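Two proteins were folded this term; both appear here.
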Amino acid sequence: GRWVEVDLTQRIAERGTGSLLAPSSLSFRNLLLKLEAIGSDPSVDGVVASLGGQELGYARAWELRERFAALREGGTRVAVFLEAPSFVNAYIASSASRVWLPPSQPYSPQGLTATQTHYAEALDSIGVEAEFIRIGAYKSAPESYIQSRPSPEEVEQTTAYVDTLYDEVV
């Protein structure tokens, strides 16, 4: 049967770009539409996708994984070649019929992390005082400018977010 290659090692932009003098980039929307068209084409038996190079956020990773799962449910086989086996790429690949990993490519999943950066001390050192009106304990957006450490509420929110992502990936 006929198989279609989908190269996901290149940059995938929110909006596609392209000009005469610059390389074009694939838009995420067009990628999803392409996969949908492949799924409705009876002459296509399968898709081979190369993953690596760029990191998709978890929302895009979820959408891409769902699209691969829909292809499989529709009878189109999906094979993924993990060129760069990150945690996110392994999550996407988990919906494929088959996953290939080069023998020379180490895979050591690191899991999920979240980083909270606070600028209050840096702003103080240059004499800048940030002013915000705080509406509630869980409205933590200004904290990174007015505090040197995250509040317990900010830690709770971030932990809940990471736990939700982890549960989805598992």
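Next, the second protein.
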Amino acid sequence: REFLLARLARERPEQRVVLEIASARYYEAHGELEAAFGHYVRGKAFAAACHVLTALAPDYLERGRTAVLQRYLAEIPPASLQTYPELVLDAGIVLHRMGQLPAAIARYEDARRLFAARPDPHGVCRALTQLAEVARAQGDYGRAQSLASAALTHAPCDDHAGRADALMVLARSEGFLSDMDRGRA
């Protein structure tokens, strides 16, 4: 396999790209998203790779597979990620979980800006909530309160999960700033 792939890359590199993309489409159509992602990346079809990764990322985050998601995100050129603010936000979450707060904050800010440019109020709410959570964890309860309040103003009425996340950060911040009863209220 390696011999044939090396020969194909050497003798007909354009054919290898075509075959990688065809393989990716096959795997994607059959629900094998991880395999599809790898073929899209090797075929330099980064928009398609990002599309597949947006489907994989929530599950990876939920299951704690942050190292895998970080590796996959690193395979995407930064310019390609800029068209997928969901992945920029996910990159921030990965960095946050790995303790790289300055880099996480930068990704959250990038995601907020990208969501706002769409406009996508749900996305803006999620990015602001993540920023508020970082501020709260750092003990900056006033900033956390301000960011969580801003997140609530962006959250659509039917975005119950987004509103709940922002309210939780706001409640914790209020509890530390004034008292726990006010936070619970």
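The radius of gyration is 20 Å. The chain has a mean pLDDT of 90. These notes refer to the second protein only.
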